[in-house]
Amino acid sequence: MQNENVTFADLGLTQSVLEAVQKIGYETPSPIQAQAIPALLSGQDIVGLAQTGTGKTAAFALPMLCQIDPTNKSTQALVLAPTRELAIQVAEALTSYAKGLNGFQVLPLYGGQDMRGQLRQLKRGAQVVVGTPGRVMDHLRRGSLDLSGLRNLVLDEADEMLRMGFIDDVSWILEHTPDTRQTALFSATMPKEIRRVASTYLKDPQEIKVARESSTGSNINQSYWTVSGTNKLDALTRILEVEEFDGVIIFVRTKTATVELAEKLEARGYSAAAINGDMNQALRERAIDRLKTNKLDILIATDVAARGIDVDRVSHVVNYDIPYDSEAYVHRIGRTGRAGRSGKAILFVAPREKRLLYAIEKMTGQRIEPMTLPSGSAVTDARTGQFMQKITDVLQGEEDLTFIDELLANYSNETGESPERIATALAYMLQKDRPLQVKFADIKPSREREGGQRGDRGERGADRGGERRRRSSAPEEGMKRFRIEVGRTHGARPGDIVGAIANEAGLSSKQIGQIKLFDNFSTLDLPSDLSGSQEQKIARIHVRGQVLSLSADRGPGAPRKGKPKFKGKKKQA
């Protein structure tokens, strides 16, 4: 079924689900929804080739809810997702679509949660379980998750589960589900391992392909700045000083960074707020509404929190942290240039992130031009222009200035100071915390060769060239290098490490940087703003039977000081 002129009412959804869709504000189904929903409602297995952002969650969630019996508390549907973030996102979507289903319960299961709480919730019953493979396996082995009544199974972002080393776990779970289940597999790509899973476990599936979204609007001016010679916050401030912006969305990678950057911008006089996945939907909607109604100028957001933002007045998108996924870049900058307006997208790129820039250019088919940071004189011009405009606005306004006129005339008569000198003193008093004249050294471009990026963060395989060469590559900005006590001799693979940390420590796989395997240990780059509790969780994780015992990497030949950090089962204070 083509989605041209098709509405949700044409797809065969039940009345309660259709009403929920209409209340949310969905009008016409996306291509993946228009094709997948009728197929799933008819009982077919499907393989959906679709990127994030194409509406695939609704494509499997809506027909799933149409087939759920809310009076039956047993688990009737299971969604497997690669990360806790996606599991939470899918569970939230199901909850919003199921407003009209009395008694409906959805339960997300992922590592890092209290197991006792999950066991209690499973005992109470949930018609839909959304979980990461590792935690679902844990419950199946315990016998706390009963899938004997399973009707629907969804594998979401299957290629990501493959990349994270979960594909054998997925196969194990599929072996422990009824043969009578209906299965939907969604993947952005179709490597041979995913094709094997589909041919082994799906019954004559209908394959649905959705064209990759690979272009950005021609009305969006795109540029990038190579991070060099100054910190990113100062660079961002310079840009905001000079650019004539209306509304701005700034994208960062972590929830912590949204709050920290919002606070720093507010301290510099900007009207800014953070939105991230830790905020409930009401708070996120309130922040977006403030942006819409001119009560806020800048939102700092993570990718997940910014989904669905549609605010016409957003004139600029700033990628403060470059996204690891090129598709995410397209979705980010699509927040500007709305309603036929022009928009601006600015990207910050560290020298070692140039390969990510090239990947974005290749995917979009567009060159992103380098930009030079505004100079001191440019910032001075911007500030003085704003200052002069304020004077003009007051003089041309309706304020009664008689008293101040008389006060300053008296001061001039008594002191002999000229009106010009008095105006100079008043201007200084007003602007002394934010001087009109700005002086700083202009930033020289990075000397690092653009072609010298091989072996950087995205290369997670082992570097067999020796410890010294491995240590010479410093972590990217915002990342810190750690050592973990598992390596090649233990049979560890990068996918094992990524999967374990992503599921147990509350990190997205995209927050995990370069991993290098050695014989008895490995190094990995993690966000430098990790909390102490996150470090402790990672330190206690087991990979291939080894406790990771996370510690700061001290360089080649440096012994570990003292006892391994957080090792064993001893509770931390």
CATH class of the largest domain: Alpha Beta
Q: What name does the CATH topology of the largest domain carry?
A: Rossmann fold
Low-confidence stretches: 442-472, 561-573
Count of discrete domains: 4
What composes the largest sheet?
7 strands, parallel
Protein name: ATP-dependent RNA helicase DeaD
Subcellular location: Cytoplasm
Enzyme class: hydrolase
Catalytic activity: ATP + H2O = ADP + phosphate + H(+)
Explained architecture:
With 573 residues, this protein is of the alpha/beta class. It is built from 21 helices and 20 strands. The strands form four sheets. Strands 3-4-2-5-6-1-7 form a seven-stranded parallel sheet, with helices on both faces. Helix 14 (326-333) crosses helix 15 (354-364). It starts with 14 loop residues before the first helix and ends in a 21-residue tail after the last strand.
List the helices and strands and how they pair.
Blueprint: H1 15-24, H2 31-41, E1 46-49, H3 56-67, E2 77-80, H4 84-97, E3 106-109, H5 115-124, E4 128-131, H6 133-142, E5 152-155, H7 158-163, H8 167-175, E6 182-187, H9 192-201, E7 206-209, E8 220-226, H10 232-242, E9 247-251, H11 255-267, E10 272-275, H12 281-292, E11 298-301, H13 303-306, E12 314-319, H14 326-333, E13 343-349, H15 354-364, E14 369-370, H16 376-395, H17 402-415, H18 419-431, H19 467-471, E15 479-484, H20 494-504, E16 515-517, E17 522-527, H21 532-540, E18 542-543, E19 546-547, E20 551-552
Parallel strand pairs: 1-6, 1-7, 2-4, 2-5, 3-4, 5-6, 8-13, 8-14, 9-11, 9-12, 10-11, 12-13
Antiparallel strand pairs: 15-17, 15-20, 16-17, 18-19
Helix pairs in contact: 2-3, 3-4, 6-8, 14-15
